[in-house]
Amino acid sequence: MIIILLPLAAILITAALLLGLGFGFIQLGAVPTIVISVIIILWVCIAGAALAFKFPGIPSGNNGWIVALIGTFSFILVVTGGTLVGTKLLGHYVWAFDKLYLPAVEQPIDFPHTSHVQKGQIDCVFCHSTVDSEPMASVPPVEQCMFCHKVIGKDLPGVQKVLTAWDENSPIKWIRVHRLPDHVRFVHEAHISYFTEKDSVPASAVCTLCHGEVGTMKQVEQVKELKMGFCVECHRNNGAPTDCTTCHY
Amino acid sequence: MDLTRRKLLKMSGMGFGAVLFAGCAVPEDEFIIESPHDLPEDLVEGTDAHYATFVNTSNGYESVLVRVMQGRAKKIEGNPDHPTSRGKHSARAEAALQSLYHPDRIQNPLKKIGDSFEEITWDEALEILSDQVKRAAGKSAFITTPDSSIRTQVLNQFTKDHDISQFIFESLENTNLQNAIKHVFGQDQLPNFDFQNSSYILSFGADFLGTWSNSVFNSWQYGNFRQGEKRDRGTLIHIEPRMSLTAANADKWLYNKPGTEGIIALTIASVIIDAGQGNPNVSSALSKVLTPSVRSSLIGSIEERTGITLSNIKDIAYSLTNDQPAIIVGGGLAGAHTNGEDNLVAIYLLNALADTIGKTGGIQYNPQAPLSGLNNNLKTTTISEWGDLAKLMKNGQIELAMIHDANPVYGLPVLPENLNFQNALQSVSYIVSFSTFMDETTALADLILPDHTSLESWNINTSNPGPGFEAIGIQQPVVMPTTNSADFGDILLTITDRLGTKPIWDSVKSGVTENAKTLRSIMINENRGSLKNGENGNSFDAFWVGLLQRGGWWDTQTKEMGQFSLDSDSLKRLTTISEPEFSGSEQDYPFHLLPFESQGIGDGSGAHLPWLQGIPDPISTAVWDTWVEINPVKASELGLREGDIVKIESPHGSLEAKIYIHPATSPDVISIPLGQGHKKYGRYAEGIGSNVLSILSPSKDKNSGALAWGATRVSLTPTGVRKRLPKNEGAIEARALSGFPVVQITNH
Amino acid sequence: MVIQERTEKKYGMVVDIDRCSGCQACVVACQSENNVRINDERDFLQRRAVQWIRIERYWEGEFPNAKARFIPMFCQHCDDAPCEPVCPVYATYHNNEGLNVQVYNRCIGTRFCANNDPYNVRFFNYWEPVWPESLRNQLNPDVSIRSRGIMEKCTFCVQRIRRAGRDAKKADQQLTDGDINPACVQACPTDALVFGDLKDENSKVSILKNHERSYRVLEHVGTSPSVYYLKKVDKHATEEGHEVHD
């Protein structure tokens, strides 16, 4: 019995550990993986303790190892499976879970869209100028910021960083918030033209469909899931092509 | 055994190992978007701009459009406006992108310290260069390649000011062709071969579809020649000792014994004269030299001497005079013998007899280039002159050698009197190289000043031959320089300051601008050219923009009628066509060695580019290697199979290469492609194959002294080792399955 | 609610073998445009070199009557493609423009499609394509880079087709014959390759497909390819003992 069950159990445990931790690391990142590893170590210790010491009701000593093994194994499955399946996979269906992995990002300059859009009443297209003519919306060059900021707000720390970048002839390295995978070719212009023509609205009214109310964000974060289902649903509703090579080539 | 707690803990410990694989995560730097400092109008993210320029090729240039996205060159496309490109381009032009972004480019000026190179600043480098030039005045040599661009004006002024002798290097010399053209047509520039309007092309060794002359322009013409609208399909006959690309496309490929092209041309002429056909003046002039007895002896002995049957000769002679317009071209192997120049003179004279000169569909004279700075440095140095230079070097009489765009250590075969160029060069006290890549010659240099690549330079060039009218190309940088290199012309102009001479221009760019002004005055004063006044405005700036947009300037109306006159000198040459001589005796060296330029890597100058290395040779489909093409019957006689490594030995060297069984090779020749066998030239070229140039005998043409590169005889010895030859074709020779042909043939 | 616009297009090509000189310009142009991996010696030795378009050379006869025939071979975008029904994950299918589509992100690398393909024009990425840092500057951002385990093949430069469609829509014009040129068609110096819409009667491909020399490769297999070839003309074929297919 031992000769069959023990190696099998060892293989199963190792496999579960490898799969779970590896998968967990990719999907969840470092912190959850470390937490899960710690929990597993604790439980292995507890399983070991169950063998070493006598607990009422639980077989111990040389027979208790079956219980310890099965118990540890099921726990690992439950813990990893539960965390992963629970959050990441359900995240496909529950945006809130997916959102856990898309927090607001700390940018090199703390650019508040609120003061520019709501207070300053600047149109989206003024800065993201190529959104209605080219595939990429583009971030504006430092020169664009300087149009106003060579006069306004020079005492603000953020503006000072812009002025420094201008003087030093260096670019500002923004952290990308909305990033589609490499195998997707998304063209802004086609989408903007479609909606502006259909509903006769200016381009900036269309941005919120996918980017949310950026004008109200102090720090830009992704608020729509932007997964393929999101795109295909809108395509189906609007009679746009759903051929794969529309976006994947 | 009983599992104790000890054992369990031990086993859990062994099993406990989290493998963290990060292979699927997105790299950190892909999450950064830079907002650039300022945004030039033509730099929009996500979209492209096309710039017209040209890339340098071995035959002048190819005018191209470069697709640039965010400051990076992405794709090369032919320039649809330019008359020699017509929107088409070749594989070599495309590979200029890889040259621009090559990982092994020399990043900075280098100075040799001990055995290795150290990076220095441009200031230091220019200082050293000027010191050396001053020191070695009168005892310097400048080695470069044939160049018809205006940048030669800078070089020529430089060599004149400092008494430097120039040497122009070309591995498979074109000297015989240039001399023959000069003899027959009386012009320095090559004539235009009007293939697209021709009905019958007879080609002697000129691989015009592959590696000879303007292959893109020729191929475009060939497409129309075959299936152009509103014309009948033309006929192409190709006579060459090996099946080159053009031979493969010919309606008839005729194998001739090497070096007998001149005899064949004379025999064809004899048949035409006998039939009373051909241009009457030329016919009567020729019959003074080709007397009836000479003619009958040629006709009687043709098959024995050359391997071509009399009936083929008669068919050709008939078609040349009845299937008009016809055109006869010669080059490549036809001129690569000790009687090469004579061969080519005879071949081109056939045009006079067949009345093709100056006609549509025949040979058309090319006008002079519209700018004086063009078509200057085209006279190749002959092998004998290289031998003389090597002697001077070995005797310590050359103090400074400067090399630009040439790799003579790799490309020069064995020199006369058993001299070796590498040894000779090493005897020079100071060597400067302007190369962009660390090739064999550059590795010997003491100072390296890396030049820009085609896509980062300014220049104006014309092609030789031109398209029958004035046409030039403008080269402009399409990207910012990607390394700390500097334009070669600019380097020579900058050091004039330190050397106390007068620069002809401030920079090469200003030279281009000055020449643009000349073109503009041609437009205004003579009212001709591809740009019309007022199209973009009337200022020079408007003209300049128009020039750059089009990528060049041309005038289709400047056709030159030319004056063909048959001079007695050419006629005399016809009597002196001798049998070709070959190095080595037939017993010791039974095979003729026919080296040929590879379709991709050419003569070796493209070997560092992986796209070109990865182009299968069109006929053998072999890649990334050097191989020996041998006749199947001969191979089975010797017991050879594909991949068998054989030793090829000539009287002057030996190499080892793999066998390729080639159904279209004659039993007495073997062919080996050029281009491999680099010891240095970047990661994609090093250690691959063998250099066939290193075993060529330094045979000379008896008239011009040019290298007779088809005159080497070799022996073949199996080594008993066998390795697979990398190729595209399958393991079995690709032949059509009867009944299921992939390529279907029709005979009408 | 969902009224999908049926695009009445069927993209196809015509290859004139009589014009093709075998120069390989199309091969390199395609590799440049589509981010095809650099094929080194190992790839050719293992017969795993990726060349979306290749020039096949067939021998006929023996010396001195040997002939070499060139034929460019690339994905034929067959109407009855044998590669399409066998994909277990529907990564390859025929779209309504007549293209045989390969969706890279669906592919799981079973290679069943390459197995079924009679023209051998499907290529599998057995290795991760790696370019040296500086050569990555040349990569085309309009085309996905296929990683290891993905099947790829000629797409008729679908990125150019999409771009032409967008440009036409922006300029409020219809697409006309000659607006779309895949990289190989654009490069070919002899004009041997022609691309267009087979459903448009006036396009060059539609006219050429009815040419007397037109045929399709391996037609007896029943794949109904969208690529038509024009036979090579050889007036001397029979006298030199070669087969003629009229």
Label this structure with key terms.
heterotrimer; B: alpha/beta; Rossmann fold; Dimethylsulfoxide Reductase, domain 2; Barwin-like endoglucanases; six-stranded mixed beta sheet; 23 helices; globular; C: 246 residues; alpha+beta; Alpha-Beta Plaits; two-stranded antiparallel ribbon
Brief digest:
With 249 residues, chain A is an all-alpha fold. Chain A contains eleven helices and one strand. The radius of gyration of chain B is 28 Å and the shape is globular.
Descriptive notes:
Chain A has helices spanning 2-28, 30-52, 64-89, 95-99, 113-119, 124-127, 142-149, 157-167, 188-199, 204-211, 228-238, and one strand spanning 172-175. Chain A is mainly α. In chain A, helix 1 runs antiparallel to helix 2. The longest helix of chain A has 27 residues, at 2-28. Chain A is elongated, with a radius of gyration of 27 Å. With 748 residues, chain B is α/β, with parallel strands linked by helices. Among the domains of chain B are: 110-169 and 381-451 and 486-504, Rossmann fold (3-Layer(aba) Sandwich), CATH 3.40.50.740; 175-364, Dimethylsulfoxide Reductase, domain 2, CATH 3.40.228; 591-722, Barwin-like endoglucanases. Chain B has a 7-stranded mixed beta sheet with strand order 6-5-17-16-15-7-8, covered by helices on one side. In chain B, helix 5 runs parallel beside helix 18, helix 9 runs parallel beside helix 13 (340-353) and helix 19 (508-526) crosses helix 20. Chain B is globular. Chain C has a single domain (11-236), classed as Alpha-Beta Plaits. Chain C is built from 6 helices and 11 strands. In chain C, a hairpin with a 6-residue loop joins strand 2 (54-60) and strand 3 (67-73). The relative contact order of chain C is 0.24. At the B-C interface, strand 4, helix 3, helix 7, helix 8 and strand 12 of B face helix 1, helix 2, strand 2, strand 3 and helix 5 of C. Strand 1 (172-175) of chain A pairs antiparallel with strand 1 (32-35) of chain B, so a sheet runs across the interface.
